[in-house]
Amino acid sequence: MEVLSSTTTRAAPVFGVARRRRSEDAIRVGLLLAALVSVLTTTGIVISLAREAIGFFADVGIGEFLFGTDWSPIIKPQSFGVLPLVGGTFLITGIALLVAIPLGLGSAIYLSEYAGPRTRRRVKPVLELLAGVPTIVFGFFAIVFFTPTVLVDLLGMDLNLFNALSAGIVMGFMVMPTIASVSEDAMSAVPASLREGAFGLGASRVQTSLRVVFPAALSGIVASIVLGASRAVGETMIVLIAAGQVAALTADVRDPMYTMTSFIAAIGKGDVATGTTQYKTIFAVGALLFAITLVMNLISIRFVRKYRQVYE
Amino acid sequence: MTQSRPSPSESTFDVGAVALEGTPSPRPVKPDRNAIFELEGVNVAYSGKPAVRDITFDVAANEITALIGPSGCGKSTLLRCLNRMNDLVPGATVEGRIEYHGQDVYGAGIDPVEVRKRIGMVFQKPNPFPKSIYDNVAFGPRVLGMKGDMDELVEEALKRAALWDDVKDRLKDNAFGMSGGQQQRLCIARALATGPDVILMDEPCSALDPISTGKIEDLMMELRESYAIVIVTHNMQQAARVSDMTAFFTVELEEGGGNRTGRVVEFDETERIFTNPGDPRTEAYVTGKVG
Amino acid sequence: MSATIGAPRRSARLRGTAFKVLLLSCIGISAAMLGTLLIKMGVEGVGQISPSFITDYASFVADKAGIRAALLGTLWLMAVCAAFIIPVGVATAVYLEEYADDSRWWNRAIEVNIQNLAAVPSIVYGILGLAFLVRGPFGVGQVVLAGGLTLGLLVLPVVIITGREAIRAVPPSIREGSMALGATQWQTIWRQVLPAAIPGIATGLILALSRAIGETAPLIMVGAATFVAFDPSLNSTFTALPIQIFDWISRPSNSVNDYASLAAGGIVVLMILLLAMNAVAIWLRNRYEQKW
User: What's the pTM?
Assistant: First the structure.
C-alpha cells in the first residue's frame, strides 16, 4: 500500500519550499483584532466621558464641581457642587461594608478553616446564589420588606421609606459574597505547612485561624474588601430604588440621598437633549465615578498580585 | 527475525585507543547502511545557554538507533530537534548540520510543519486525544489532507501497531478507556498513519508496566522492517535488547559549575557499545559503575 | 480543672465553640437573608403568574398588565449579546492563551485592561452605550441592537476570563501530540484545544448571560422604554424584564392597581429564567467535565 511508508530514499527534494503560511498569519491578525475590542472599549469609555466632562468643566468650574456642597443641576438656582452625591455614595458604601466585612470574613474563615467537604458543598451554592441575585431584586426587597418590616415594625425606627440605612444594609448582603469568596481564596492559598506548624506548637484552631492564617492571607483579604467597596460604589439599582432621590449632604442615615450612580440613572431615565448642561452632568459625574472605581480596582489588583506572588 | 552484524574485524575502530575527549568515534563502515538522518556538529542552546554540543551521528533505515546516557544530558532535546519540535520552546537555537535525506532540516525557508509530516513522534507519557480511537488515528491524515479510504488507512495503521485485534470492534470508543500500554500503541498507530519513514520515540515505555513494555519492544522490532526508529531510553537493557546502533551521551559541567552540556561520547553498533566499549566513560555507564 | 494531659481547659473549649458559632452565624445570617428574600418575592409574585401574565402587554390597568413585550425584549437582548460575546470573547481568549507572547508589553496591557473592565460599574457601560451606540458615531438609536451590544461589552470580560481558564486547562501534551503529527498551530487549536475547552467556555457563557439578564442600569441609560405594547425586533425600541419590573416598582400601589405584586411577578419570572440557566450550566459541567 503506497500510503504508508517505504524504505527507499527519495531522491527528489523532500520538503516543499515553505510558503508563507498566509492563512495562519491571517488568523493570528484576526484574533488580535478581537482582542483589541477590549482595548477599544476602554478607549471608548475614556473618550466619551472625557469629551463631555471637559465641556462641562468649561461651563462649570472644576473647583465648584469637586468642592461645592450644593447639588442642584436642574432646579434654579442651579448649583453644581458634587459633594452631596459623593457623600451619599460613601455613606451608603460605608454602611454596606459594616455589614459585608464581618459576614464575609466570618464565612470565609469558616469555609477555609473549619468546614468539611459536605458543608462546603452546601454553603457555596448559597453564596453563589446570593451573588447571582439581580440588584433590582435587592432594591425591591429593601422597600417592600426591609424598611417597613425590619426597620420600622421590628426595630421601631422612625425613618423615611427611602433612606440610606436600608439601602446600605441590603447592599452589604449583595457585596458580602465578593468579600467571602476572594478572602476564602486567599486563606486557602496559605500552605498547610503553616497551619501544621501552629498546631504542632499547641495552638488552638481559633488561634491558628486568627493569628497565623489571617495575617498570612492579609493582602488577599484587603483586596477582597477593596473590591467589595468598589462594587458598592458602582452599584445603582439598590440605591436608586431604596435610597430615594434627594441630593443632600448629610450624615443622617435615616434620610434619603442620591449617590453618584443613582443620580446618573435618574437623569438618564428622562430624555435629555444632547449638549445641554444636564446631559453633560451625566458625564461629569460619570467621569468622577469611573476615576474613583478605577483607583480602587488598581489597588485591589495590586494586592491580589501580592498575595499570589508569595505562595507561587 | 535476526539481523546479521559485521564481525569486529570489519570495523576500523582500534580497541586499544582511548577516545580523545569530545572526539566522536569514527563511524563503522557498513556498505549497505542507508542513512536517513545525518547529524554533524549539532549544538542546541536555550536562551544562549548550551544544552548539547557537537553532536555527530546518523540514523539509518531499517535500524533502531538508541540514545542512552544519564539524566539531563540532552537526549530528548536532541531528539526533538530532528522533527523541529524544539521550535515550540521559546529561545531555542540550533546550529550545525541536521540533514534528512540530504536536505537541511533547519534550512532557510523550510517549514517545520512540513518536517513533522515526514517524521513521527511518540512521547514518554501516552497522550491520546480525547476522541474516539478511530478519530485519534485519522487525525493526522485528516489535517494533512491525505486522500484515500480513511477506514482502510486507519485499519492498516492499527494493524502495524499490533492494536487492530484489540480494538476492531470498538473503534468509536473513547481512547481514554484503554490501558496505558494500549494507549501508547494507539499513539504509535497515530504516528504511522501519516506515512512517515522515521519514528522518534522519547522513552516510550517509561510510564508502562513490564508486560506492556515487552509488547512495545516486540512491536519496535517489527516496525524496523519498514521504518527507521530512534529511541531515547534510560533503560540500558532495553537499548541492548532492541537497538542496532547506540549513541552514548554524557554530560559535562561548565567550570564554575552551572551549565550542564550534553555530548555524544561514542556512537557505534550496540553490541560493541555493550561488550567492548571504546571510551572509559561509556564502559563506566554500561557496566553500572555510574548512574 | 482537668487532670488529664491533652484535654483542653473549659474556658478554652468554650472560646473555641463560641468562635465557631460566631463564624457559622455569619453564614446563617446571610442564608437567612437570602431565604427571606426568595420567600418574600415568591409569596408576593407567584399569584401573578398565569398564562395571561406572560402573553399580555403592559397596561396601566394592573390586572390586565403582562410581561410579553418585556420577556421578548429580554430574549432579543440575550440573543444579540450572545452573538457578540461568543466570537469576540472566545477569539480574545484564544489569542491571549495561544498566540500572545507574555514578554511583550502590549499583551500584558491587554490582560490588565480586561481585568479593569471586569470591575467598571455597569452604569458606566450604559453611558458608553448612550454616547457611542445610541447617539454619537454609530447613532442607531434606542434600539435592541444598542442594548444588546452594551450588555455584551459589559459581560465580555467574564467570557474572556472563563474562556482562558478553560483553554489553559487543556494539557500541553495534547498540543504537542497534534503538532508532532504535522498540524499547524491553528489546526491544533481548532480541532483539539477548542473542542476540549467547550464545556468550560459554555459554562462561562451562561455565567455571562446570567449577569446580563438582570442588569437594569445600562438599559436605563441606553433608553429602554417602559411602555411597549408591541413585539420588539432588532431595530425597534424595546423594553426588558428588569426595566418593566423597575417601572412597576416606581409606581405607587393603591387599592385599584397593585403594581407591587406585578413587580414581584416579574421578579419571579426573572428568577426562574436565572435558575434555569444555572441548572443548565451545572448540568453541562457535570456531564462534560474532562478529567485529564
Answer: 0.88
